Amino acid sequence: MTDTSEATIQRYPFGDPDRLNLDPRYARLRRDEPLIRVRLPYGEPAWLATRHADVRTVLGDARFSRAAAVGRDEPRNTARQIQGGILSMDPPDHTRLRRLVARAFTARRVEELRPRTRQIADELVDNLLAAGPPADLVEHVATPLPIRVICDLLGVPVTDQDRFHTWSEAIVSTTSLSPERIQQYIDNLFAYMGELIARRRDEPTDDLIGAMVRARDADDRLSEEEVVQLAAGLLAAGHETTVTQIPNFAYVLLQHPDEWARLRADRTLVPRAVEELMRFVPLGATAAFARYAKEDVEIGGVLVRAGEPVVVSIPSANRDETVFADADRLDLGREVNPHLGFGHGVHHCVGAQLARMELQVVLDTLLDRTPGLRLAVPEPELVWKSGLLVRGLTAMPVAW
Amino acid sequence: MSMEEGQSGPGWRLHVDPTRCIGSGICAGTAPRHFGLVDGLSRPLAERVSPAQAVLDAADSCPMEAILVSEADSRRRIAPEP
Which region is the signal sequence (chain B) (predicted)? Predict the structure, then answer.
């Protein structure tokens, strides 16, 4: 089954996302046709991998490359190619940059931020309670919490958040912003971070940007542009994703009242619940960051030729019934949960431990403060974002 | 790269703490000649290795600090950085 004629190439994504429902055709693909030919809105055709084992191979095996995408007509969701930066690198170049920040995001370092994060969460829930009911969980809690945490960690003034929060949408936008606007926002983000880094050089600080500036000045293998891009990427990625996942988690829990009650009754389940929600929520609305085979590799019974790009569906991998028993069921007590919600391999989310901690703190805080949490509008009235790489709610009116 | 594979010397010892490893695959991608995933968790392909920069990179990139690189003889810790 390796017919690669044009006729067999399917458009991808298969359709507009429907809330947090996963298209049932992934289950069929995992069973019958684990690798298919797809065409994203722009760029050359690609293979799409849907099984857990294959997705892990494509993301983790050194025979697949991100650097090889540079100069190719990369499968993508926007007209313009956005290449360069750490996501277009392989080891050892990738490692040179990743090491600069990885030590700030270890589980141990992140744990030190938990008390402060809980304090922020409590303040934000105070605001939520004062504003309603009903009040918007997105505006009062989900948006400001990750922004305040990443600003503290990086050393970015939180008073500038309205500006860079607007610009950050550019890194997850597909059609929500015009190509010109995406470019303008990315330029703004880089210019803002460039100025901040220049100031840190004159006035050294103990935060992560201060540490990056010192590392750059001590190591001439790091260019100024690389450091600016990396810091801007952390700032933008550091909140677009968690900001979106907090309401997604709350939405899924409210759609599963038995599981929400189970969590209320046994708070020791919170860490497992976060892993299960990372698995269950199909955050990605499309595929991005194709990996190029550096040599012929057989995956899913198909020979991927050297030079061919492969994209993956992480939401599909996370529902693979050969890995997760009763994969379509939300089970907050799931013990074995090797989900790929943070990716896999060298590009595994550098902020994964931070996101986990934030999501645990938010669940704990909501369980403490709003155990009767419920939607304040009928579910069909919720408005979902569109034109983004991720699925999420524009607002989530809740009562308690 | 500041250290070449196969450099002579006392050698290093690799250990992955299976209770900390989350199977992120970062080490296997960073140092594929030194780490591999077995049943979803990382294992060194050999316990004693010649000094290599990729091994330090892997240990310093692990979010769980699950990889310990030490001098084979003295057991002095080399990576991760504290």
Answer: none
